UniProtKB/TrEMBL annotation, chains A, B:
Domain Amidase: 25-430
SUPFAM superfamilies: Amidase signature (AS) enzymes
Annotated coiled-coil segments of the chain: none
Lineage of source species: Bacteria, Pseudomonadati, Pseudomonadota, Betaproteobacteria, Rhodocyclales
InterPro entries: Amidase, Amidase_dom, AS_sf
Region of interest (Disordered), ranges: 55-76, 132-154
Protein name, per record: Amidase
A molecular function GO annotation: catalytic activity
Comp. bias (Basic and acidic residues): 55-66
């Protein structure tokens, strides 16, 4: 049963459902791969192999008893260590929360368990999901950052340790590590996924997301996470989103993509620029250009105002009791954030809607925006997780975004291509991504 | 057809429905009363008698054609002049908005029209619903304030100019003017009534409310205003609340009331204290006491932090372009509010839930809290609208509150008794209020 750890989530679920192999087989293969790669990659904050196997055996027993099973029955998933789990510690990447044991699962962990998933373990996050790196290294080259803040989730999926992982993005924390590690990443529309039981950084900006090795797996995981949560502020009663079904459909017309040269285009590195340009040339008959509104250049500043003020408010008690055990970068973020007035905050937040609306017209003409996921491949060194700049605008607007690991540099590092969709149109974005992969195949 | 202006809303609706008199008759009676009393009371910011009569004639025509009619068919209502009306100016009590014509009705005005109501005119508000008084005087004694900020709505109902009026409360702006003017006032649970199309002062604290001359009329108006609004943040799909039906029911057991001596009890004036004590003695077998949590004394400060920061953010563009045409008090509020940090704001806002929860246990033992509506009767003079202090805690917590005009001072000024209910339990609160009136009758 070798290689089961490299199956996609759908293949794993299908094989378990059909009795070709068991959940225990899959989990054992994942644990073996972790044993082999973890010393180098360091993707896990918490892993209890026995507890994982116990869950898998229970899933197998359930199936053997003919009880109903969910779409992820027996499939292991990695969970970013800022997302609460009842049966495992959740330490938020900070010594301030060492040994923290939540008293209940986050809503999305609950949804995963209801779908039959095995919660394999907790993946490494940067310090409280901000900038100071955790221990994780890039599986393609351990001298390079995996990106952050969902470092372990991206690296674990890339290293074949688990087919699926969950992370969060407040700036570029899903799309960037997915790009650096060369896996598929998906940040759904803001508000689509419950944040309950997840370390709150910014109520306005926090957006949970998915890591996988295929677009279809992103859709499957995304639709599981989209379970309605009556306690999530602003979420209205609705059924689970049909992301996988739509993702697999043929588009009614061949999609068109809009190349959006964001104002920070010049910061794209040479290698990435070349690869991206070749891709655009190759797709030229399906591509048009769209000029960004001038005001979008200010988004970085507005985003920073909101995020730093929210971090200062959200992490206030941690700062009060343990600022000396925080990294300098987090301390400085909090200290800048403490100075932000309500008036300045609201002025920044009031830009979200008009900027989003000004981008909306792209989608009257195009199915998706195509743009780089990051400035280039994963930077050398482990002191930083790289810049989230190429993700900020889409996070600010809450638009759905996908990283496709389409490019590679000369020295074998992945470079991500980002597709961005209209707010609420996640299913169509996934369908467009699948079409693009088929076109390029 | 004299005296039709003094009918309750339900009597007026019934008479119109039965053809005893027409909507035009009722509106004419109201206009005649306005003509008689308006020079002294000054309750109206905008009144176009012809337009009111046109609406009434259309209502009468509709009825005569046998078309469906709503529960307020033909009944005139006054609307506070911070609530948008498509067919009348909405000037927000400030010269900065002189001549402002909204391009659509506020959601609650829309709901009133759908129920058949006649929008009689716009009632006077203080400056942008804050502290600087408008022109209105107390109908019981023109040398006394009517209270604010919903000054005109309270005074118009008290003076028999209209059976119903709508106002808003961010601190004490419904209950206090109702108490000073001697009418029934009702501030529903926060979030029950849509704020769309109403001058936004504080998203957290703004709470629309009702003025009438009976509790049943409050229930009828409140249930009309509770219409679901899909665009109102945080409102979940639900049917209209059955306030009137429950209000008219007999309580399953004789209700009990909890006397809550708020920390600012000592500020109650002698006259009001005496009347209130007599009432409590009279009801002694139905009354128990409840000790306020110590922290509640800080509510005034938390409320101020939130309100002033919100005002500074909400009125920012008005301040920038016209601060010299604002009152000193509003300017100072805004200037204090501009200095409030997001961290301080969130710390204050985070107290709402625990304070509300600590009060919740009152309602396991009692049907309602009984407490004064204000420090006493309407203060002498027109330079201030009096203190909202006796309303702040309940507004902060978003609890439903009713003013009952049960007491009178020696010189004929009304003194209000406030009943406060559990969050979401508005119907029960109205039922308890009706029971109390019956008991005292």
């Amino acid at each position: 049963m070798e290689g089961l750890n490299w199956l996609t989530a759908r293949q794993a679920a299908q094989g378990i459902r059909d009795g070709v192999f068991s959940s225990e087989d899959v989990v054992k293969a994942c644990l073996a791969q972790i044993e082999a790669r973890e010393p180098e990659v360091q993707a896990w904050a918490h892993l209890d192999p026995e507890h994982a196997l116990t869950q898998a055996r229970e899933a197998d027993k359930r199936r053997s008893e003919g009880k109903p099973t969910g779409p992820l029955h027996g499939v292991p998933v990695g969970i970013k260590d800022i997302i609460d789990t009842l049966d495992m510690p959740t330490e938020d990447g900070t010594v301030l929360h060492s040994g923290r044991r939540p008293w209940q699962d986050a809503k999305i962990v609950d949804a995963l368990r209801a779908a039959g998933a095995i919660i394999l373990g907790k993946t490494v996050t940067t310090e409280m999901a901000t900038y100071a790196p955790g221990k994780t290294r890039n599986p393609h080259n351990p001298e390079h950052t995996p990106g952050g803040s969902s470092s372990g989730s991206a690296a674990a999926v890339a290293a074949g340790m688990v087919p699926l992982a969950v992370g969060t993005q407040t700036n570029g924390s899903v799309i960037r590590p997915a790009a650096y590690c060369g896996v598929f990443g998906f940040k759904p529309t803001r508000g689509t996924v419950s944040c309950r039981g997840i370390l709150a950084q910014s109520e306005l900006l926090d957006q949970p997301g998915c890591f996988a090795r295929t677009v279809e797996d992103l859709a499957l995981l995304g639709e599981t996470l989209s379970t309605y949560d009556e306690h999530q502020k602003g979420m209205r009663p609705r059924s689970t989103l049909p992301l996988l079904r739509v993702c697999e459909e043929e588009p009614p017309l061949p999609p068109t993509l809009s190349l959006v040269r964001t104002p920070w285009w010049d910061e794209l590195d040479a290698d990435a620029r070349e690869g991206f340009s070749e891709l655009i040339d190759h797709l030229s008959d399906r591509i048009g250009e769209f000029e960004m509104p001038d005001s979008s250049v200010q988004v970085l500043e507005w985003h920073k105002t909101i995020m730093e003020a929210d971090i200062a408010a959200s992490y206030e008690s941690d700062y009060e009791r343990g600022k000396e055990r925080m990294s300098k970068s987090l301390r400085e973020q909090i200290e800048r954030g403490r100075a932000v007035s309500v008036v300045d905050y609201r002025r920044a937040a009031a830009r979200i809607e008009p900027i989003t609306e000004s981008l909306d017209e792209v989608f009257d003409r195009f199915d998706a925006i195509i743009t780089p996921s990051a400035q280039g491949p994963a930077p050398h060194g482990l002191d930083s997780t790289g810049s989230p700049q190429f993700c900020t605008l889409w996070t600010f607007c809450g638009m759905p975004a996908i990283n496709l690991p389409l490019l590679t540099t000369g020295n074998g590092l992945p470079v991500g291509v980002q597709l961005v969709g209209r707010v609420g149109d996640d299913a169509r974005l996934l369908r467009t991504a699948r079409w693009l992969l088929t076109t390029l195949a």
